[in-house]
Amino acid sequence: TPGSNWFQALKEFPMTREPQTRKVDRSAARVFWNRAQQCAGMMVEALDRRHWEAAGVNAVHAAISANDAVLVALRGVKPSSANHKDAVRVLLSQLKEEDEGKAAKRLGVIVAKKSRVEYDEKRFTEKEAREIVLDAQRFLEWAKSRLPKALREGA
């Protein structure tokens, strides 16, 4: 519906074309989820050490890997485009429930900061680091809730 989170996210990341994906065996979701967890751990450690750029970079990669884990586990696909904004479009095209719109919007906010934290000549600030880490933590919580129980619990 026009007021829903999914619809709002779709407006922010319009699908002018079908996003590129590639098929991936669903068992590979564990690799992506483990990668997300590793990046999330380093993100928190970097934040504790006041390494703002490292916290930001790891937040971005934790969210991207968590998105890949969800898409691979539930649909057997992952984004294949070099444009990380397409990860948001793939999420929206593959999962169309209300909470996915909110999650896609959050992923979009995180991915939009990728160039800033990785390539900008200006230092990433503490405020920016804390914001992106919080967004990444919330995105990972959502991703974990969507993953099969055995994958979430590491069985």
Structural write-up:
The protein is mainly alpha-helical. It is 70% helix and 4% strand. The chain has a two-stranded antiparallel ribbon.
What is the chain-wise order of helices and strands? HEHHEHHHHH
Structural class call reads mainly alpha
Low-confidence stretches: 4-10
Oligomer: single chain
How much is the radius of gyration in Å? 15 Å
* Sheet of most strands: 2 strands, antiparallel
Residue share in β-strands: under 5%
Enumerate the strands of the largest sheet in spatial order, edge to edge or round the barrel.
Answer: 1-2
Helix content: 55-70%
Total number of strands: 2
Number of separate helices: 8
Span between termini = 38 Å
Indicate the topology.
Blueprint (H helix, E strand, L loop, with lengths): L4 H8 L8 E3 L5 H20 L3 H24 L1 E3 L5 H10 L3 H15 L1 H6 L6 H21 L2 H4 L3
Antiparallel strand pairs: 1-2
